[in-house]
């Protein structure tokens, strides 16, 4: 059946013939010129060697569909991709910290503006034009700082959303390496690891499909 899947799924110069012993087929991916090798052992174990996690997921889903596999647990490792993901997770933490700091600063500025506005109006009612002018000039500066902080916060929030999107895509990719219940379990466990901020557990789940040792 694996040989039938190979012959139907790939444009081959000639059909692959069934072999009783271990054998492998290798291709060059047109997506990124990387190599894809599929190794089949007599006992039924199949290894897919590629640096492209999306391609690996496509191969597994195609194979599982052709062979009518409803449950498939997989061990997978993509060191380069996981290292990039680790950097993204660090950025997510940084963006969260910046957002909290900016929120606190903006709240402090808002309180200062309210207080300054009351002082400016008091000075106006008392006819103290000098203090009124001083307070309104300070209000202008505070308001300008608040607007600048808001712009920084918006940019930070946009970058945070982009990084969170990348993390979610990584979790979905890890799920596509499995079929059936293992797929849903991996996605759920990865999200739990993200919520608990446990990155080591996250990468273990992506690699072996479970958080347990």
From TrEMBL:
Domain BBS2 hairpin: residue ranges: 79-176
Taxonomy, superkingdom: Eukaryota
Domain BBS2 C-terminal helix bundle: 181-207
Pfam families per record: BBS2_CtH (PF23351), BBS2_hp (PF23353), BBS2_pf (PF23350)
Domain BBS2 platform: 1-67
GO biological process: one example: non-motile cilium assembly
GO CC terms of this entry: BBSome; ciliary basal body; membrane; motile cilium; neuron projection
PANTHER family attached to this UniProt entry: BARDET-BIEDL SYNDROME 2 PROTEIN (PTHR32465:SF0)
Name the record gives this protein: BBS2 protein
Species annotation: Turnix velox (Little buttonquail)
Organismal lineage: Eukaryota, Metazoa, Chordata, Craniata, Vertebrata
